[in-house]
Design goal:
Elements (H helix, E strand, L loop, with lengths): L2 H7 L23 H6 L4 H12 L4 E7 L2 E6 L4 E5 L10 E5 L4 E4 L2 E6 L18 E2 L4 E8 L4 E10 L5 E6 L2 E7 L5 E7 L6 E3 L4 E10 L2 H4 L3 H13 L11 E5 L1 E7 L10 E6 L7 E8 L4 E5 L2 E5 L6 E8 L1 E2 L4 E2 L7 E6 L5 E14 L5 E4 L1 E3 L3 E3 L12 E4 L1 E10 L2 H7 L1 E4 L2 E4 L8 E12 L4 E11 L11 E4 L10 E7 L8 H9 L1 E8 L12 E4 L6 E4 L15 E7 L6 E11 L2 E13 L3 H4 L1 E2 L4 E2 L2 E4 L9 E4 L5 E2 L9 E4 H9 L18 E4 L18 E9 L7 E10 L11 E3 L2 E4 L3 E3 L4 E4 L9 E2 L7 E13 L23 H4 L3 H5 L14 E5 L2 E5 L2 H8 L3 E4 L2 E4 L5 H9 L1 H9 L5 E10 L8 E8 L2 H4 L13 E3 L16 E11 ...
Parallel strand pairs: 4-10, 14-20, 14-25, 27-34, 35-42, 45-51, 53-66
Antiparallel strand pairs: 1-2, 2-3, 4-5, 5-6, 7-8, 8-9, 10-11, 11-12, 13-16, 14-15, 16-21, 17-24, 18-21, 19-20, 22-23, 24-25, 26-29, 28-32, 30-33, 31-32, 33-34, 36-40, 37-38, 37-41, 39-40, 41-42, 43-47, 44-45, 46-49, 48-50, 50-51, 52-55, 54-64, 55-56, 57-62, 58-59, 60-61, 63-65, 65-66
Helix pairs in contact: 12-14
Length: 1000
């Protein structure tokens, strides 16, 4: 059935859905989907009633129930139909027309007359339209106004508040009015007796037109060709001779009707009439019921006029209005809507709503004929409307129906395609298989309703679909993660070869055809929407492109045409199943039509999201977080731990999956899942320790516990496209290790009677985070100034005579032969050196003679005089003097004395001197809350130390050896274990146990 037609005739009649094998007037599941949705709560009940009515059952009783009615059918089954306005709805209200012709509400007579008292010509009076509810919630009825001679609206004083269902019994049917979700009433019509049937107008307004014209062949045919054509037609159709000049000629007039059940057969034994609301029966004869309707009925905005198609339960009646000789016109509905009254041979009378308009269409224009386009079939009725092209092969205008002579006019055309004509039926015996269409050359001589004639050659196009074995392949598309020209796009391409064209002609026709690819996003039920989600065409900026085999270069002809498709922009698509409808056409001819499925998916979350590697161990995000913002909690912005692509939006939400599971399981408040680790700012927020107060068990602290988190991102800037990324997180201290492995304790040895500072031999590094492996300061110092013993390079050790500088063994320092010239020996003296000649470094300059040559060798004092120009002690450390200029640095680097100092300073022994060393106060690292020390065995320690309490500075004093029993010492020494506890800002406590040795 024509979709455009059906959508309009579904105005509230019965049969809103249809399943099973029974026959019913509206068994069109696809077309009535919208109406089903409106009264979804009743769809099963109405479908059941539909089935029964379609089988010929009728209503035996309707009784009100809360919010609706219970409908009892003739087979004894009872079905409830209810409104859906809410639980406060009243019982269904029943309106009936009594035998006295007045309205009755729930059995109580009203003062409103529902049937016109005075029908004409013995016909029954017209029946009023059904009651309705106005905007103020009051009942409105239609009552007969004898003065006006018509029905008028009357607002009663009866409240309809809370009414969501009511039924009206009239004209042999029950009309149920059921409120939908919006409060709008839908109508359901049911037969009321065994021999009752339901007749309905196929639309709210049905416009039935017949044509009239003044017969003036002498006036209209002025050319010789037209005169000759008229003569030919009168010779062919001899009945034309009886039409007098200027007579009014009439033709046409077809009235469509919808009849239910489907097994009702209208015959000439039925009486048909049209009745106005005032009760007047019109002088319009209705006869010759034929199943189906003409090809040219259509519906626009609820009004039905020419153009549609035939279907079961739709019938057509011939309309023959009487001619009024006095007024010189045919009868019409007088600009009103009439009700169709149908009486079967048993005397059962049923009526439609007031929907029919019958009027004359005066034809003044001359006849014309044009060529149309039709779809190939072995035989074609050239006057019938083609279902695909929606045109006939021969298109007449203002014609006198049936008065035309059609001939094939070209012998070559006839022989080429094996053409023959039988009236208007064309036979094509030799249709070429590899063409998309042929032209049929015709000569048409046609007569107009006004007596005009036309003789015209026309070329009718007969299109042919190319038959191919293949078609579109299904596609699985993963949205792109690569940006192309600023967008995440990818080509979705199909191979031309998939269509399996067998000839170059077919492929050429396909290449040249206009192509449309409609993409429909299927809903959760797998149903396709009425309108395409996206449409791609070869005529719209080439967004459906044709390529060569590389899928990049544009195809230039059928010979290099290998692929076609469209560019899919990830921003526009959401994951789901899409139906693809593809059609290639040449004008009205369909070259290829194919359908496929495309499944669109997001890239896998694990492929596009990564936890920051430096913060991740064994696929678990290691979080340190901020322990200072919220008391007793560690907070962390999870986005800092996730590497996300730029097509993932910044608007991310997080869910604590373990907390969600706890909620779904309705867990106890004492379980760890009771606490949501995601706070109202979307941060990770974890208790440092006692989340459950004093009842928190040691093994239930949240730190160092893995938690399952879900991050939900929007992809490609499309709010409808989201993706979940699930990962594990654990909150840890950056300085804590369970075994204390990040703390190093070097051997700690103290002397009897001396103070021992353990902190100088204890160091630590960060265990986690960006500082992992870097030094961690466990102990701070107060800073200040101290005296430090340093090497006094100006006071080298000397021999007993005080001439030579010596080493730690009191041995003079020999000058290397290669350095003698640097120390001051002349070249002549150097060349005269004997193999056994030796020279030693002296305190002062030393005069020496080699052979006859005299030289002076620099002494250490001379060297230091030069060195002291550039070097000194800075806060206890030997180095450059402060503020050396560039020239001074250059002189230092060029100085021979400085070079000799560097070469020999480590060979000498020196006295020491005191240097003041100033240290700045240095606190422990911020992550450290406290460090405490305790003897592992206090009683044992008591034997060797002056106090069993160790200060937080890590210092203790060993007893003097005289105060220690020799028997308590092992090999003259004592070994004591110390437990050092490091408490960090996360509340974690790390214990490190080590040994301290005390000896002489």
């Amino acid at each position: 059935m024509n979709k455009k037609f059906l959508s309009a005739i579904l105005f509230g009649a019965l049969m809103v859905s249809s399943t099973g094998t029974f026959v019913s007037c509206k068994d069109y599941d696809d077309d009535i989907e919208n109406l089903q949705g409106q009264i979804n709560s009743n769809k099963d009940a109405i479908a059941a009633l539909q089935k029964l009515v379609g089988e010929g059952k009728w209503v035996t009783n309707i009784s009100p129930v809360e919010n609706g009615f219970a409908v009892t059918m003739s087979d004894g089954t009872t079905t409830s139909i209810t409104g859906i306005k809410g639980a406060d709805g009243k019982d269904g209200t029943e309106w009936t027309i009594g035998e006295d012709g007045f309205w009755y509400k729930d059995g109580e007579k009203t003062t409103s007359q529902a049937i016109a008292k005075d029908g004409e010509d013995g016909k029954p009076g017209a029946t009023a339209p059904s009651p309705k509810i106005d905007a103020n919630g009051m009942w409105v009825v239609y009552e007969w106004d004898a003065v006006k001679g018509e029905f008028v609206e009357k607002t009663t004083e009866i409240s309809a508040q809370g009414t969501s269902a009511y039924v009206v019994k009239k004209d042999g049917v029950y009309v149920l009015h059921i409120a939908d979700e919006t409060g709008k009433f839908q109508e359901v019509t049911l037969p009321a007796t065994s021999d009752a049937f339901v007749v309905e107008a196929p639309a709210a307004v049905v416009k039935v037109k017949f044509q009239t014209a003044k017969w003036q062949p002498a006036v209209k045919n002025t050319t010789e060709k037209a005169k000759k054509a008229y003569k030919t037609l009168t010779e062919k159709f001899t009945d034309l001779a009886g039409i007098a000049a200027n007579a009014i000629v009439k033709q046409g007039g077809e009235l469509p009707i919808l009849v239910n059940p489907a097994n009702v057969e209208l015959t000439d034994k039925f009486d048909f009439s049209l009745q106005l609301a005032k009760g007047k029966v019109l002088d319009i004869a209705l006869s010759n019921p034929v199943k189906g309707i003409a090809d040219d009925w259509k519906v626009n905005n609820g009004s039905m006029s020419r153009a549609a198609k035939t279907e079961d339960c739709l019938w057509t009646l011939d309309v023959e209005p009487a001619y009024n000789e006095k007024d010189k016109k045919y009868a019409t509905t007088e600009n009103e809507e009439a009700s169709l009254v149908v009486e079967n041979e048993k005397g059962t009378v049923v009526k439609t709503a007031f929907a029919y308009q019958v009027s004359a269409d005066d034809v003044n224009e001359n006849v014309d004929v044009n060529a149309g386009t039709v779809t190939y079939a072995p035989t074609i009725d050239l006057t019938a409307v083609d279902a695909k092209t929606e045109k006939a092969g021969i298109i007449y205008a203002n014609e006198y129906k049936g008065k035309a002579i059609v001939k094939l006019r070209d012998q070559l055309n006839i022989e080429q395609y094996g053409l023959s004509l039988d009236g208007n039926v064309l036979t094509i015996a030799n249709m070429p298989a590899n063409v998309s269409g042929i032209t049929v050359k015709l000569n048409v001589i046609a007569l107009g309703l006004n007596g005009s004639a036309v003789d015209k050659d026309i070329d009718v196009t007969v299109n042919q679909d190319i038959q191919v074995a293949g078609g579109l392949e299904d596609k699985n598309v993963t949205l792109s993660t690569e940006k192309v020209s600023g967008a995440y796009t990818q080509n979705v391409l199909w191979d031309v070869a998939d269509f399996q064209f067998t000839t170059a002609t077919q492929k050429d026709a396909f290449f040249k055809a206009g192509k449309t690819m409609s993409v429909y996003l299927l809903d959760e039920n797998g149903d396709k929407p009425e309108t395409a989600t996206y449409t791609y065409t070869t005529t719209d900026d080439d967004n459906l492109a044709q390529y060569k085999s590389d899928g990049k270069a544009t195809a230039t002809s059928y010979s290099d045409f290998a692929k076609f498709g469209f560019s899919l922009n990830a921003e526009n698509y959401v994951p789901g199943t899409y139906a693809i409808v593809f059609e290639a056409t040449d004008g009205a001819a369909t070259i290829v039509k194919s359908e496929a499925t495309m499944i669109v998916s997001n890239p896998k979350a694990e492929d596009i999201f990564k936890l920051v590697p430096d913060f991740t161990t064994a696929n678990v995000l290691q979080v340190i977080g901020d322990y200072t913002t919220v008391n007793n909690k560690v907070v962390y912005d999870l986005e800092d731990g996730i590497l996300a692509p730029d097509f993932a939006g910044s608007d991310v939400t997080y869910i604590d999956l373990d907390h969600k599971a706890w909620e779904e399981a309705m867990g106890a408040d004492t379980e760890m899942g009771a606490i949501d680790w995601i706070d109202d700012q979307g941060r990770l927020s974890v208790y440092q320790n006692a989340w459950n107060g004093d009842d928190t068990k040691a093994n239930e602290y949240m730190l160092n516990k893995e938690r399952n988190i879900r991050a939900t991102y929007t992809l490609y800037g499309n709010a409808k496209n989201t993706i979940d990324y699930d990962f594990k997180v654990i909150v840890k201290s950056s300085v804590y290790t369970a075994d204390g492995s990040n703390v190093t304790v070097k051997a700690i040895t103290g002397a009897f009677g001396k103070e021992v500072n353990m902190t100088s031999n204890i160091s630590a590094v960060y265990a986690l985070g960006i500082n992992k492996g870097k030094a961690l300061t466990l102990f701070g110092n107060a800073g200040g100034s101290t005296q430090k013993d340093v090497t006094d390079y100006d006071a080298p050790k000397k021999d007993a005579a005080g001439k030579y500088v010596v080493n730690t063994d009191a041995t003079p320092i020999e000058i290397a032969k290669a350095d003698l010239i640097k120390f001051g020996m002349t070249v002549d003296a150097y060349t005269a050196l004997g193999a056994d000649d030796k020279f030693f470094l002296t305190v002062e300059n030393n005069d020496v003679t080699v052979g006859s040559e005299n030289s002076t060798l620099k002494g250490w004092e001379t060297i230091m005089t030069e060195v002291n120009k550039y070097y000194t002690y800075n806060n206890g450390t030997w180095g450059d003097k402060a503020g050396l200029s560039a020239d001074e640095k250059a002189a230092r680097d060029a100085s021979a004395e400085v070079a000799l100092f560097k070469a020999y300073k480590d060979k000498l022994a020196y006295d020491t001197k005191k240097e003041t060393v100033t240290t700045q106060a240095k606190p422990a690292s911020d992550e450290i809350k406290s460090v405490t020390f305790a003897w592992d065995d206090a009683k044992l320690a008591e034997k060797f130390v002056t106090s069993t309490t160790i200060g937080t500075d890590g210092k203790f004093t060993a007893k003097a050896e005289a105060d220690i029993k020799a028997s308590d010492l092992v090999n003259g020494k004592a070994e004591l274990k110390v437990n050092m506890k490091v408490t960090d800002k996360w509340g974690m406590v790390m214990t490190k146990t080590y040994t301290v040795t005390i000896k002489k």
